[in-house]
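Hello forum,

I keep getting stuck at the same step: I have a sequence, I want structure tokens, and every attempt I make locally crashes halfway through. Rather than fight my setup again tonight, could one of you with a working pipeline run this one for me? It's a single chain of 128 residues.
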Amino acid sequence: MRIHPMLTLLAAGALFASTAQAYDADWKRGRVYYRSVCTSCHVASPIGQINPSAKTKAEWTAYLQADKHAKGKESVKQYVSKEYRAKIKGSNKAAEKFADVPDQELMEDIKVFLLRSAKDGESPASCS
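Reply #2:
Ran it on my machine without issues. Output:
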């Protein structure tokens, strides 16, 4: 019995699709990073603390998608990068703890925390 090559490709694709899983973001890890890294920096800046509940889910989503920080002068992603975490890990325990977490995973963790804690999220929160 000869199997058609296209069926082999489809079967392999189905197997790959079933084994490949999307990352299930961890809002708790996002909360720890946001509170320890983002909030600690903002408290020391003229802007001051930014509570997650200060924005709606749509506003947080737009902000993260635009990837503009400091009035568009910087990238949000740079503050989640392994390079940035390596730079501050001596003075920031969260940066040290999450030093080896892939950038995209940590960014997803933060996003889930912000959306969950947004003004219209399931658990609006402050940074206290």
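The radius of gyration is 19 Å. If your local run keeps crashing, start a new thread with the error log.
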